[in-house]
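DM from R.C. (forwarded with permission)

"hey, sorry to bug you on a friday — could you get me a structure for this? deadline for the figure draft is monday and I only need the backbone to look sensible"
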Amino acid sequence: MSRTKKLRNAFLILVPILLFVIVLAFIDKPMRYRLYPWDRITGRIYVEKNDQVYEIMPDNITAQFGTKTTKVHANTENGSTSISVHAGAYGEYCISIEIDGIPHPLEIVCYQYNWWDICDFELSIYIDSRAETITIDCLRMSLNNEGEKVQIRHSSTLNLYDDVLWFRV
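My reply, with the result:
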């Protein structure tokens, strides 16, 4: 093969690759978040019960999407529990946490506003049996339509003996 043909073949291979890299540079964020293959809802949960650190057992955490139970990965370490749910669809995901001494599970609701949304949160849960309250502080990090991270902080206080203990992340 002549030198000219080798250069032409190399050019024909390198030009499409270079064009692909240039195009990818402009659409990187939207494509990366839409093609994201990992868990789309992740969080870290800290629980204090009557001023004592309380560790949640991973078996006491379940997740649901609609009427289907969804797999949740949980790992408790150093007083906090990290969780993740695949959540690859648009809609409401409910994460139930059973805590000893509370009559009903604590329902944490995370809404996926887009099928490609990635939600990360930190929950600090303070249970006061004497005051019969549960105070939840939440920091939610998710993406806007441009693929930029947005942080939202909010909190709520629930009555310990309500029939439904529900909190939206």
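R.C.: lifesaver. Helices lie at 3-26, 28-34.
me: no worries. The chain has a mean pLDDT of 86.
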